[in-house]
Design the sequence.
């Protein structure tokens, strides 16, 4: 009795190249917003989003870190930083800030 077994090698479906280390770092969850920003990012945020007020930036990060979830963090931000509702979402500084906030609650 002869058994004919054909071996079929399946290719993975549209395998994407592995993410670079930088891409992996950019997608990781953030446990503490205060340590998530590089020096340059802090400077940009303070200048563009917080009217050169470094103390306000620090207070905002501390409060946002203490929020229970993303919805409460956004509510707090809108209530305590009135200008935040007028932030241009297409601005790279706004996008980076919001990305870090989202990753904090990912």
Sequence:
């Amino acid at each position: 009795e002869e058994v004919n077994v054909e071996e079929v090698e399946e290719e993975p479906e549209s395998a994407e190249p592995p993410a670079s280390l930088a891409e992996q770092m950019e997608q990781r969850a953030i446990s503490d917003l205060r340590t998530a920003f590089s020096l340059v990012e802090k400077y940009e945020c303070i200048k563009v989003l917080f009217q050169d007020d470094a103390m306000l930036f620090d207070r905002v990060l501390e409060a946002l870190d203490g929020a229970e979830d993303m919805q409460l963090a956004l509510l707090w931000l809108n209530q305590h930083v009135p200008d935040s509702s007028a932030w241009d979402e297409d601005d790279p500084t706004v996008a980076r800030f919001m990305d870090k906030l989202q990753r904090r609650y990912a």
About this structure: The longest helix spans residues 54-66. The mean pLDDT is 85. Helices lie at 21-27, 33-36, 39-49, 54-66, 70-80, 92-104.
